[in-house]
Please model this.
Amino acid sequence: MTQSTRILNLGSLSRGDSGKYKCRVTDDFGTTNSENYTLNVQYPPRSVTISPRNEIFYTKPNGKPVQDITCKADCLPVCTYTWYRESENFTEGNNLFAKRYLYHTGSYRFRCHASNGVGSNSEMYSRWITVGVKDGPNNVTIKPSSSEKENDFLQLTCSASCYRECRVYKWYMYNNFRSEIGSTHILLFSSLSKADSGKYQCEVTDDFGTNSEYYTVDVQYSPKVVTMQYASLYRNLIEGHDYITLICNADCNPGCSYLYYQNGKLLNERYIKEPVHRNMSGRYTCSAKNSIIDTYKNSSNSQDINIKYPPGIVTIAPGHDTFYTKRDGHPLHDITCEADCQPKCNYSWYRERDRQRYTKGNRLFASKTYNYGGTSRFNCYATNNIEPYAYNYSRWINVEVKNGPDNVTIIPNSSAIENKPFQLLCSASCNPVCQSYSWYYNGRWGDQGTKILKFHYLSKDDSGNYRCRVTDYFGATESEYYTVIVQYAPENVTIQYSWYDHLIEGQDYITITCNADCNPGCSYMFYQNEKLMNNAYTSRLVYRNMSGRYTCSATNALVDTHMHSSNFVDINIKYKPMITSFVNRTILTAPSLLDLTFSVDSFPSSNVTIFHKTKSLTFLPQVTGQRSFKVSITSCLDHGEYKVEAVNDAGLDSFTFIANVECSPIILRYSNLSEEGFQVGDSFYYIVDFMANPEAEVSWTFIDLNNKEPKELNKTLIQNRGESTMVIISKLNFSNFGKYELELKNNRGHFMQEFDIRGPPQRPTDLNVDCPHSAIILWRPGFDGGATQDFMIEYSDNSSYWLTHHPQSVVSVDNKFMSAQIHDIRPNTPYSFRIRAKNSFGVAASDTTVNCTRQSK
Model:
């Protein structure tokens, strides 16, 4: 800039005018330059900037960011700087974190304020920046490469969101303590083993700190070390008093399923707290399997389980009830005792009624001989000390001294038929063999000494009683008498029957018998209406199909044909009614008709009564076959059960029909109101029972006696229960007196019921009498009790006789008082006045008597 004036005029200064100035003076002697003058033009801040130019910065807790955050403004003189966190003064100076740091993780907004006090615009703010406090990498994750099965390859990859870059990776494994196992972002397992299972930690470090993530490696492997064991409640496994649980253990991942075996045989189910039983004894093993393998691995051991149990049934062999022996000898066979028990039992023998033991051991006569006469009873005692039932007894057996053969009997070879051969065999159980035989006829000894008595041709003279006598080693025994009777064909065949009461089906029994004179005994055939019967009736319960005409026939082994009875019997079985109903409608609408059509099967015919509930509707005598009866359905009262009952001598039957009658509401019953009415303060209950189908809507309306306007009754005064409704007023007041209307309504119609709450009037009050020319009576009427009330004025010139005045005209005064006049009173005579209120429910007298005297004119 160059000006040729002594004064340099810069005009309005701007920052561009700042710089060095000098002046040069020229005269005749030459030119001289002045010293430089520096002009600094002051100006307020402009363009406040933050470096670096990022929008978001990151810093450590209680530390500085990677790069300084500085504030700069163009201003002269140099500005002072203040940093604000939101509206809070955070620090002074152009470096944000030169003096103060952020301590907590999070995100914060800052801006810079620059000021130098020059001019009116001496301050300015920078843009907003965001500072995030980071304590290390974000989103640290560990990702496996594949499943985690034993012997498989596994790669764990650790990743994180780091600022600029992740600087350090470290891997740790937790197995009782933490140990470092790697320093790269990938952790490799070339062949997984069970020992690799555990908790792993990846730790990642960047410029701001360190964060980590955990991952649990769960190596899956097939069953290892399979063992079998069991648990019981008590030490001794006693049947019925202990419980057992089978336990199979295996080291496997994932968890195993198990199979259990008893003596090599697969069990259907595992025993878990199972009551022990003797059939549980045996050798137990188990096997285990999981999803890693396809086959079960057997347990490396076994468990032997022996269930102890007291003696069960104690048996004696042979299985006879009686054993025979000679006196002072032994029976033919050893008598032994056995019992099922674990551990093995000890045995003792006892003779009935002896207090001492007879012998010990499982053989009764191993060391003793039988030296008693007659018969003795013995039993065996078995014990093994297993509580609570540590012993048991066998059955009783008989040991008897034998004196000869047993079972000596006479056996014929065939039926004894006249003029035919016949023989008797003497049979006996001898020990060891039978030695001799003898025969007796009608008590006389015969001359045959053989086992068989023979008759070449029987005659009637051979009939009689026969006996044989047999001897063996033990002695001699005689048979019972055997009677021989000659046989012949049947004669005189007749049929008859016996019975009880009236032969009613299902109640009485009948026996039909056929009689014939025959030997041997006859067999019989029975016929009903000439048709052969399968079986005869013997105490047979009778049924209707047994009615008919019966005959019989007889035969025996001597003839080939049947001889028919010479008579017959007729049998008639009575049976009770059976009713079949043809009613097919269950829902009826009133009014309508109910058609009760039915059929009766009975013998004899039945009397039929038709009921509605308990009421008899009609009586039909001597009915058999189909009948019909129509019932008029008029209202809900016809709803309910209808029964048709048929009765005859054999019994009765009935069928019932439930008529569902759709009907308009009806009133069944309601409370009676007191003829004396009600008074204020009384309690009031009014109940109405009704019927309706479909269900009726219930509504109550109240009509006040004064305004006559109906309104819905307060619901708090109403209780509805099923087909009953109730109005309950615990304490009557004036507003409760009036007309109550009940309406019952459904889609079939409606019904109205009404009642009044009324009562005697309340006594008149505030009686006043004035007697100018006549008696003018003024009083305040009481509550009229809900009914029209009249007033009677009584007056008297003495207290012994009262006149009654019924005022024809009563005047209302101020809507509160009433007034009437009495003209026929004498002057100068004192009168007493009183008033009574009366309605249809009662009379109420005033509580005061007023005196008044008419003065003469």
About this structure: The radius of gyration is 65 Å. The mean pLDDT is 88. The chain is about 0% helix and 55% strand. The first strand starts at residue 19 and ends at 21.
